[in-house]
Structure formats: C-alpha cells, structure tokens
C-alpha cells in the first residue's frame, strides 16, 4: 500500500563502496560524515546506521515522504559520493 501524499515512510538504503574510492579522501571526511549523521538524526531523517567493513557496505534507515526526498537526504552526506546506493521502501509495522 502506498503512503498518503505528504506522509513519511521508512526506506533502507544499502550503499556499496565503489572500487575506485580514494580511501585517504574517504578517511579525511569521516568526522564530517559523523557530524552530518547526527544532524540528520536530530531532525528525524535518519534512523539506524550500520557498517559492514568486510563487505564494504553500509545500511542507512531514512525517513522521508518519497524516494526523491531520500536522494536529497543522502546528498547531504559527505560519504554519499563514494557509494552506489540501492533504495528499499519498507513496509510500515502494521503491514508486516
């Protein structure tokens, strides 16, 4: 069931680190990434955030009205340019 326009839903973003990532540049932006995650968390735009270094993958829960808003939120993260992202809309708890 699609959400009503203007209502939020939860999305899981699975990001895979690109093979051509400059790891020195990536490491240099780590503090900025953590600060922006905290800002987004305080705004209610980001929920859970998990990292699997062995798989070069990150999982970010984003609360948004639609996929466009998810992309806008992701674009504010310094690490976003290093990842190929797949987006999964999640079913609300009452639909599971």
How would you portray this structure in words?
With 96 residues, this protein is α+β, with helices and mostly antiparallel strands. It has a single domain (9-95), classed as 2-Layer Sandwich (Alpha-Beta Plaits), CATH 3.30.70. Helix content is 29%, strand content 32%. It has three helices and four strands. Strands 2-3-1-4 form a four-stranded antiparallel beta sheet. The longest helix has 13 residues, at 30-42. The N and C termini lie close together (11 Å). 16% of the residues are buried. Pfam families: MIase (PF02426). This is Muconolactone isomerase domain-containing protein. Residues 17-92 form the Muconolactone isomerase domain.
Compact description:
Pfam families: MIase (PF02426). This protein has a single domain, classed as 2-Layer Sandwich (Alpha-Beta Plaits).
CATH topology: Alpha-Beta Plaits
Percent helix, as a range, is: 25-40%
CATH superfamily: Dimeric alpha+beta barrel
Oligomer: single chain
Number of domains: 1
User: What's the rounded overall pLDDT mean?
Assistant: 92
Tell me the fraction of residues in β-strands, as a range: 25-35%
Q: Count all strands and give the number.
A: 4
What is the structural class? alpha+beta
What distance separates the N and C termini?
11 Å
Task: Based on the coordinates given, report the CATH architecture.
Answer: 2-Layer Sandwich
- By DSSP (H or I, 4+ residues per run), the number of helices equals 3
Q: List unreliable stretches of 5+ residues.
A: none
Order of helices and strands: EHHEEHE
Strand order of the largest sheet: 2-3-1-4
Largest beta sheet, briefly? Answer: 4 strands, antiparallel
Domain Muconolactone isomerase: 17-92
Protein name: Muconolactone isomerase domain-containing protein
Organism: Amycolatopsis rifamycinica
Pfam families: MIase
